[in-house]
């Protein structure tokens, strides 16, 4: 876990900001990826997340992505799971 954090700390976005700049709050999100069958942890992931409520359009971001699912697509996926005998939880 130390190697990714050290590489992020050495990158330019996390250097000291000028006094007149507003710095956004952030938090580290840590996750463990597990094998579904054995429940064994095989990967640790870390992601730096910014506080969304403090961001301003065209200053901190330019576009957003909001994935949308409709019930038709979910039903089709479940029908395929039954037909092709996919494992679902």
Describe the SSE topology.
Layout: H1 2-10, E1 26-34, E2 41-50, H2 71-83
Notes on the structure:
The chain has 89 residues and is of the alpha+beta class. The protein has a domain at 2-61. It contains 2 helices and 2 strands. A two-stranded antiparallel ribbon has the order 1-2. Strand 1 (26-34) and strand 2 form a beta hairpin. It is flat. The relative contact order is 0.12.
Main pleated-sheet profile: 2 strands, antiparallel
What radius of gyration results from the CA coordinates?
20 Å
Mean pLDDT: 83
Q: N-to-C SSE series?
A: HEEH
Structural class: alpha+beta
Bin the strand percentage: 15-25%
Judging from the principal axes of the Cα atoms, what is the shape? flat
Strand order of the largest sheet: 1-2
Count of discrete alpha- or pi-helical segments spanning 4 or more residues: 2
What's the end-to-end separation, in Å? 30 Å
Q: Give the proportion of residues in helices.
A: 10-25%
Low-pLDDT segments: none
In total, the number of strands is 2
């Amino acid at each position: 876990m130390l190697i990714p954090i050290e590489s992020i700390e050495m990158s330019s976005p996390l250097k000291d900001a000028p006094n007149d700049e507003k710095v956004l709050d952030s938090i580290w999100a840590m996750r463990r990826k597990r094998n579904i069958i054995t429940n064994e942890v095989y990967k640790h992931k870390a992601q730096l997340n910014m506080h969304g409520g403090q961001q301003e359009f065209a200053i901190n971001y330019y576009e957003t992505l909001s994935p949308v699912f409709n019930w038709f697509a979910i039903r089709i996926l479940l029908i395929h799971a039954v037909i092709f005998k996919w494992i679902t939880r």
